[in-house]
Amino acid sequence: MTRVTSAPAPLPLVASSSAPCPRRASFWVDTAPRARAEIADASGTTGFPKGAVHSHHNMLLPGRVSALRGTHPDGGVMGVALPLTVLNLIVLGPCVTFQCNMSLVAMDRVDGLGMGEWIAAESITTFSAVPAMVHDLLTSPAVTDEMLASIQAIGVGGADMPDAFRRLYQERFGTRVGTGYGLTEAPTAVTVEDVSEPPVPDSCGKALPQCGVYILDEAGEPVAVGEAGEVCVGPATEGEFADVYRPMLGYWNRPEETAEALRDGLLHTGDIGSLDAAGNLTILDRKSTRLNSSHTDISRMPSSA
Length: 305
What we know:
The structure is a single chain. About 20% of the residues lie in helices and about 25% in strands. The protein has about 300 residues and is α+β, with helices and mostly antiparallel strands. It has one domain (about 1-10, about 30-285): ANL, N-terminal domain (Rossmann fold, 3-Layer(aba) Sandwich), CATH 3.40.50.12780. The chain has a five-stranded mixed beta sheet with strand order 1-5-4-6-7. Strands 11, 12, 14, 15 and 16 form a five-stranded antiparallel beta sheet that branches. β15 (about 265-275) and β16 (about 280-285) form a beta hairpin. The longest helix has 14 residues, at about 55-70. The radius of gyration is 19 Å and the shape is globular.
């Protein structure tokens, strides 16, 4: 069993490292927020290996936004059943947990009964999994409603979610599972669907408050509402988190690919999509086909709200 309890207060804003955190003054390391911190596999299975380089700021920002928005209630328990060797899981697991006054439980089972036992034993309130894992959890005859009583939300990503799965989720938890869009180069989530609002067919939801989503044509110009173009991601231009977000620093030792992906202050994703008048993103296609089979890759992921 592995359980880690977070510190009792949120971390300082990740954009500043000028003063040590008072709780950890004796262990403080003065690290530049934009310095390289991690290299994540962004190669898929059809291309040459590429490493997306991320800064300390990149890895901590999603958790900081979650903490300030109250996405996760204090005292919650986050379970992690997917591999923590995946950067997105580190960002959405430990890096969120420790900034949101939550506890983290590393789960060593991925079968339905095993996850159910972990949830019941540790009163897990949220965890992330691929649809097949959640389907197994919800259909296992050995997993009772009492075992899942502590669950408040499940992050579902990494594969398509059929209508039958969506119905099963809603019947069990009384709320629909939402869809989001994210990629390793971001890192993690860029948009998320608000499940409290009426669903928009085929939509991945709206941009997170720190992100801006733009649809551009081949010349790099914005297209009209509803028209298709390349999905590009940059910092939000208004609101509490304006000009805070940054995408990856680049691909490790691949200057040409970096220059292609990072242009004019935006991350060019290579995905084709459109935005409606309300800002809902729909993904339509890829500029270049990429297969992700038998591979722990959640770079283009639907995820629950």
